[in-house]
Amino acid sequence: MNMGAPSETVPQPDTAPSTPRRGLLLVMTGASGVGKGTLRERWLAGQDVFYSTSWTTREARPGERDGVDYVFVTPEVFLEKVRRGGFLEHAQFVGNHYGTPVEPIEAALARGQDVVLEIEVEGAMQVRDRMGDEAILVFIMPPSLTELRRRLVSRATETPERIEKRLARARDEITQAHAFRYVIVNDDLDRAVAELHAVQRAERARQLPEEEWTSQDHAAARLAETVRSSALTDEDLKRVVES
């Protein structure tokens, strides 16, 4: 588990592969307040990927834009789409529904475009169950629950009761971190972004025979191995939830 050592410099993945391939399905998840949105923006800057915009029934927060941050819909509209099988995954979280529409994702993967989902943990498990090993699950973990609490309080968008619910759920999710392929600790933004680039490039390289890998592919694979969930020990997880 990479908890603080400097990482290798890994170039961003090429955005225009020379040979046709199916796109990667990259699923980013983690506790609310862990910083997924900031990481995603830095990671995907300049990349030609398909970022799936989730549907939700919750109210928009200040500064959020309909159709960009989420597609904000009524519960009636959301549940009708569920009835028609229109979501790759959907979940209810803290009283609100969230879902990922399936059609644009399948189209992007088929044309060779990498797809990034930023969804709740329950939804990520549904994607894994439906898509199998094609779903590359990346869990973003806080350095500690104390830090996560600080971030949630400073965001000032939740009541104290909801913050406690989110922290309780985060504690459960962290203890199940081995269910994900990769776990990235968001305590240093630059390093976390470099690790996300490494994961993406390493997974792309694995679509080719290893003898065709570049030196950058090998460097990415080495860095990606350091954030495999298998590198985590039970003591690592215990430190996060108890600190």
UniProtKB/TrEMBL annotation:
Reaction(s) catalysed (UniProt annotation): GMP + ATP = GDP + ADP
EC number per UniProt: 2.7.4.8
Family: Belongs to the guanylate kinase family.
Protein known as: Guanylate kinase
Record keywords, A-Z: ATP-binding, Cytoplasm, Kinase, Nucleotide-binding, Transferase
Tree of life domain: Bacteria
Cited HAMAP family: Guanylate_kinase
Compartmental location: Cytoplasm
Region of interest (Disordered), residue spans: 1-21
Ranges where the Guanylate kinase-like domain occurs: 23-201
Group of enzyme by EC: transferase
Its job: Essential for recycling GMP and indirectly, cGMP.
Nucleotide-binding recorded as keyword: yes
Binding site for ATP: 30-37
CDD domains: GMPK
Organism: Deinococcus aetherius
Taxon lineage: Bacteria, Thermotogati, Deinococcota, Deinococci, Deinococcales
Any one GO molecular function term: kinase activity
Biased composition (Polar residues): 9-18
